Amino acid sequence: MRTPLLSCLALLGLLGACDGSGSGGGPDTVAPVDTVAGDTTPLVVSALSAAPTPGNPLAVRVLWSTDAPASTALDLDCGADWIHHLETSGLRTIHEVFLMGLWDGAQCTAQVSSVTEDGAWGGGTVHFSAGPLPALFPPLTLQLRDAARMQPGWTVFNLSNHYDKVPLLLAVVDEEGRYRWIHQRATASSGAATSVDVMDEGLLVGGTFDTGRIWPALIDWEGTVLWERELDMHHDLHPLDDEAWLWLGHADGCPNDIPNGGTVNRYDRALDETTWTWSFCEHYLPDPIFKDWDHLNAVLPFPGEDALLISAKNQFALFKVDPSTDAVVWRLGKNGDFERTDGDGLAFANQHAPEFVDDDEILLFNNGVDDVERSGAVQVRFDEDAMTYEVVWSWYPEPPIHAPIWSDADRLENGNTLVTFGRRGEDLDSHIIEVTPDGERVWQLSTPKKWGWYRSRRIPPLAPGIVKD
């Protein structure tokens, strides 16, 4: 059986004994196997090896056999920042440990040991290296790291580059900007507007129609696709819990200059079916109608309330929807139902990735308008009784960075904000910048030109591995 990785993630990768299997890494050298006998016949350990992982050279599978059923234990040493112990007490003769979270060039030693029920012991040592990275993965530049003030953890994102026809890439990097987990989707599309969320089992990856069809999928840490469906979805696949997800799709019959309109859908994973669909154009029509007016890019539940918040990019507005009646309750933004009390003009435009930071406060990425080449993070507070709103916090980098598409803003546990500037252009790079509440940069990671990311998430460091039980 398999047990979830939630406990390992929560431990910030310090110590794990999780169930699973896998494959891994670089060249290996096996040391002679040592066995020790107490009052019993020594346990024979054989076939000790570290096997390469197809597609992810930052992971290794360590295998060995014992001539009698015994426990499985492994001590991993890849240097001062990656020393771990993994074990399970179940008895078996074939032992398998999947190790992950390695980095390009890591030199590691794994000491394995097994003990039978009556105390016979056997063990051995295997040496291996991680990498090299596949050529498809671009070099990333860590421009700033203030370890004392940044939110500890690693960062997960997608990578896209349609100029060089690179397929969709997924990655996790550590605080130093080193790749620690990678995956390439089996598609020819770059998958630009693809959301990525972390679940116990692995990564929940959205689909996209941006540059070719990509189906949404759930991918475990060993790179196995656990779930994949031909769902008509784009931009946002939002997990409500382990079994219910919200996703954005298309609908026929809407007045628009491009095929299909925007829909919100609730998918039940246990039933493997869509249980609710809401079509934007059936409940709201702008005046005038224009191309791509119903472009939706985010959906999420209101905290403590049966309602949904929907981001309509080209309306420069957020909509509250009551799923029990399908009615639009209000619109916040351009030509909306709320009066701005802290100034004139648009608080945001072409926005992406809204999230609640309080019951009445929303953080989002303000992409801005094309004639004002400035983008950044904006936090608004709204009052549903007075129907007013105000900007209570914002951050725009200097010199300005304009990200007219994609991008993200996430509030971190320590109060900092992770701001993702995703850009697409042959002469443009992309950035993920962590800033304090006072607007000081404490971490910044950048891509080469041509490369972009849609969103990013700060997560606990990955567990060191999975022990097959």
Structural class designation: mainly beta
Biggest beta-sheet profile: 8 strands, antiparallel
Q: Gyration radius, to the nearest Å?
A: 25 Å
Which regions are unreliable across 5 or more consecutive residues at pLDDT < 50? 1-38
Secondary structure: number of strands? 34
How many helices? The count is 1
| Shape, per Cα inertia axes | elongated
Description of the molecule:
This protein has 469 residues and is mainly β. Helix content is 1%, strand content 47%. It contains 1 helix and 34 strands. It has one helix at 6-10; strands spanning 28-30, 34-36, 45-52, 60-77, 83-99, 107-115, 121-129, 141-145, 154-161, 166-173, 179-184, 196-198, 202-205, 217-220, 225-228, 233-239, 244-251, 261-268, 273-279, 296-301, 308-312, 317-322, 327-333, 339-340, 352-358, 361-366, 376-383, 388-395, 408-411, 417-421, 431-435, 441-446, 456-459, 465-467. Strands 1, 2, 3, 4, 5, 6, 7 and 34 form an 8-stranded antiparallel sheet that branches. The protein has a 5-stranded antiparallel sheet with strand order 8-32-31-30-29, with no helix packed on it. A 5-stranded mixed sheet has the order 24-28-27-26-25, with no helix packed on it. The longest helix has 5 residues, at 6-10. The radius of gyration is 25 Å and the shape is elongated. Mean pLDDT is 89; it is low at 1-38.
